[in-house]
Design goal:
rod-shaped; about 120 residues
């Protein structure tokens, strides 16, 4: 249930961002932008739509990569926790088996002691 809500929120946020970007492009379609390049020491003129589209795509891709990085880290932590939990449960099962074997030995020794005491009397 929680995963479904997260997916719905993710899709809604993406739709809102993309529709906001589309509205920005629609209202600023014919504008141009002048910017100075420090490396080339030149001033360039380009359409605002191209510059906005480049920034949007770069931001979207970098955000996706960042989320995948965090997701892989959390997946690694979850798998490590699962392995630790499995090891603890296996050790617990082994300890329970050892305890059961020792209890059986104790019962056998008690029965032998009782029979030896009865034979002695």
């Amino acid at each position: 249930m929680k995963k479904n809500i997260e997916k719905i929120i993710y899709i809604l946020v993406n739709l809102i961002v993309i529709s906001g970007f589309a509205a920005f492009i629609y209202f600023n379609f014919d504008r141009t932008v002048e910017f100075f390049c420090f490396v080339m020491q030149k001033t360039y003129v380009t359409k605002l739509i191209l510059l906005s589209f480049m920034f949007f795509i770069c931001a979207y891709i970098s955000g996706f990569c960042l989320c995948m990085l965090f997701k892989s880290k959390s997946d690694e932590l979850c798998s490590a926790y699962q392995k630790r939990h499995e090891n603890i449960s296996v050790e617990k099962d082994e300890n329970n088996a050892k305890i059961a074997a020792l209890e059986a030995k104790i019962q056998t020794l008690e029965a032998a002691l009782n029979s030896a005491l009865k034979n002695k009397q």
